[in-house]
């Protein structure tokens, strides 16, 4: 049975997608069979792997609303397998809001196929809505990418509260794997202050090392690669590989 | 009658909140009476002005679901007036989804008070859901902050499509003021490429100058200030002032 990770943080632009893609690539390079699940209607993960979300016949949306089996929707991308998203997924949110047991929708979609993988990584949208709750319900553990800046700080407590609710109601076994400091600016005191602040206030484990900010990481999606593939000797690739080893 | 701007981009972390706060501060310094509207349940704008969202008795949420007049909810913050958000606003989204004419909810909330201001700036959450649609329906024009990186690029076309829908159905007079290049990395080719790409594909006007990436801008919220107040001589403050002048 695979380890299923939800990569979540309702704050926007904290490198959830970048982290899912990089960790997935690193784990695949270590020999794991990896499934990536794109749960964002903006389909950035899907795009990032070189799959055109607007050209897809089917996406995870069809698994939710038309009961299409996930095995008929997943697509191979290099050494990874992707359950892709498309803009249709915005319709899934509306559809699921009206359904009993909606929190379990993703878990049900993944159940028949997850046995084929060693690790599943779910990329969440920047919200604590029904798609993220579904990811938290389907997961064994949560990875929290965090941009160590003032405006990101507040969200972590709220996310931890949401995780407690999910533990209480829909997924008692859910663990928190830890926080990953993303786009970390090592040159300033602020980054380290925010990280220590969050760790001491929430008691969350901080996974090491931080991933430093680097323009090459932002450029990798243009080449339809994660930094791990795009520039394997780059410090960011190295950081994500060291983080990936701790998730196996 | 004031000029009402919706500051929107469904991509996360592209400096919507930072831009609203900075432009608002710059316009107030030019003598305008400025109203800031926080439409994000994460209440980052509210926090950024030094208002504690968790200590608020009422927020814009109460205007939506309990018909509390906006005049009883707004709060003075320095030279600005703020219609604040709180986590309750997540409940507004659900509530509004069930209501006829929901797109006009914010417009109705603002109608009695907007005459007291020269400019209104609405901070949108990272989604194209009911709150953002409400902002686009209430606005005279849209400002699109854009992080000039590959993963942000795709979203702009989708946002422009949404704006066309709003023009067609709920706000025929809606204009696009233009794109602001935020957190701009002048040292690389990528940033300028993405900006030119978006401009040529969408025909959108690019407002000048770009706001360069600088750690001081990310630190300003810790002091409960925008960069314009926090470091008036800083290049980012200067950029936002020059942008503000074009919005009057
Ligand atoms: N270490 C890094 N250094 C520089 N840029 C980075 C780094 N990590 C991610 N980025 C870039 O920052 C931007 C935001 O990252 P990303 O889209 O992965 O965040 P996200 O949390 O998934 O956003 P959203 O909330 O919109 O889903 C992207 O353009 C990405 O390429
Ligand atoms: N020019 C800049 N240079 C450096 N950091 C910046 C700049 N502009 C904004 N930031 C920082 O980048 C982060 C994201 O900005 P902000 O929260 O304003 O984006 P947003 O689009 O409102 O995000 P969300 O989608 O979550 O609402 C914040 O920590 C902010 O302080
Ligand atoms: Mg993402
Ligand atoms: Mg914001």
Describe the structure.
The structure is a homodimer of 248-residue chains. Chain A is built from eleven helices and eight strands. The first copy, chain A, is of the alpha/beta class and 248 residues long. An eight-stranded mixed sheet of chain A has the order 3-4-2-5-1-6-7-8, with helices on both faces. In chain A, strand 6, helix 7 and strand 7 form a beta-alpha-beta unit. In chain A, helix 1 packs across helix 11. At the A-B interface, helix 2, helix 4, helix 7 and helix 9 of A face helix 2, helix 4, helix 7 and helix 9 of B. The site of one magnesium ion (MG) has 5 residues of chain B, from helix 1.
Structure summarized in a few sentences:
Two copies of one chain form a homodimer. By secondary structure, chain A is an alpha/beta fold.
Defining traits:
homodimer; alpha/beta; 11 helices; binds adenosine-5'-triphosphate; binds magnesium ion
Q: Largest sheet of chain A, order of strands side by side? A: 3-4-2-5-1-6-7-8
Radius of gyration of chain A: 17 Å
For the residues shown, what is the average pLDDT of chain A? 96
Distance between the termini of chain A: 12 Å
Largest interface: A-B, 37 and 37 residues
> Which oligomeric form is depicted?
homodimer
Low-confidence stretches of chain A: none
Secondary-structure-based class of chain A equals: alpha/beta
- Helical fraction of chain A equals 40-55%
Major beta sheet summary of chain A: 8 strands, mixed
Reading the helices and strands of chain A in chain order gives EHEHHEEHHEHEHEHEHHH
C-alpha geometry of chain A: globular
Q: What is the number of strand segments of chain A?
A: 8
Percentage of β-strand residues of chain A: 15-25%
Which ligands are bound? adenosine-5'-triphosphate, magnesium ion
The number of distinct helices of chain A, counting runs of at least 4 residues, comes to 11
């Amino acid at each position: 049975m695979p380890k299923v990770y939800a990569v979540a943080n309702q704050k926007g632009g904290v490198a959830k997608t970048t982290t899912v893609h990089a960790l997935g690539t690193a784990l695949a390079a270590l020999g794991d069979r990896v499934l990536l699940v794109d749960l964002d209607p903006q389909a950035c993960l899907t795009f990032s792997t070189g799959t055109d979300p607007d050209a897809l016949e089917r996406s995870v949306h069809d698994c939710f609303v038309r009961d299409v089996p996930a095995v008929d929707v997943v697509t191979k991308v290099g050494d990874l397998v992707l359950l892709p998203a498309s803009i249709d997924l915005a319709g899934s949110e509306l559809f699921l809001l009206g359904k009993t047991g909606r929190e379990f929708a993703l878990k049900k979609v993944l159940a028949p196929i997850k046995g084929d993988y060693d690790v599943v990584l779910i990329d969440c949208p920047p919200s604590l809505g029904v798609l993220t709750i579904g990811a938290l319900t389907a997961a064994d553990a949560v990875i929290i990418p965090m941009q160590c800046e003032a405006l990101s700080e507040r969200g972590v407590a709220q996310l931890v509260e949401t995780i407690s609710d999910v533990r209480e109601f829909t997924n008692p076994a859910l663990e928190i794997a830890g926080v990953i400091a993303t786009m970390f600016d090592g040159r300033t005191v602020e980054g380290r202050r925010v990280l220590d602040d969050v760790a001491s206030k929430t008691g969350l484990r901080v996974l090491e090392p931080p991933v430093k900010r680097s323009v090459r990481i932002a450029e990798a999606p243009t080449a339809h690669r994660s930094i791990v593939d795009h520039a394997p000797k780059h410090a960011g690739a190295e950081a994500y590989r060291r983080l990936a080893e701790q998730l196996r």
